[in-house]
Amino acid sequence: MSDLNSRGVMKAIYDVISQPSGKRDWESIRHLYHPRATMTRTGVAIDTLPANQCLTFDEYVKAAEENLAGASFKETEIGHECARLGAVAQVRSVYETIYRVGDREIHSRGVNFITMVRLADTWQIISIAWDNERAGVTIPDEWLN
């Protein structure tokens, strides 16, 4: 992964989380994350999903497996921008989510901000922070593809 393919990275991440009820293949994307990467959820979560957390990759996986148990979850990228200078990149990935439990279906949209660096000729995620739309917080139209 010596040349940055930010769209490919986001597709891989969204493909893993977007599954029917059951375990996800987190190991298939572990290599995308630096061992010290952080994942920070801010704002409001869907129903009982915890918000305002700063997690390691392993803590995030554990929380996601617990929070999505029994649910079908699909996240699709609907906007993408990557700014890069040398060995540092900032990706803004706008997504829409469909969360299903039984007959209940919740639609939402949010934004992932991803910081990536190239270390030892490999691009890795250093941090991801995200938030969802809600009253008073709206994704700008120009961020959508």
TrEMBL record:
Name of this chain's protein: DUF4440 domain-containing protein
Domain of life: Bacteria
InterPro entries, per the entry: DUF4440, NTF2-like_dom_sf
Domain DUF4440: 23-125
SUPFAM superfamilies: NTF2-like
Transmembrane spans: none
Pfam families reported for this sequence: DUF4440 (PF14534)
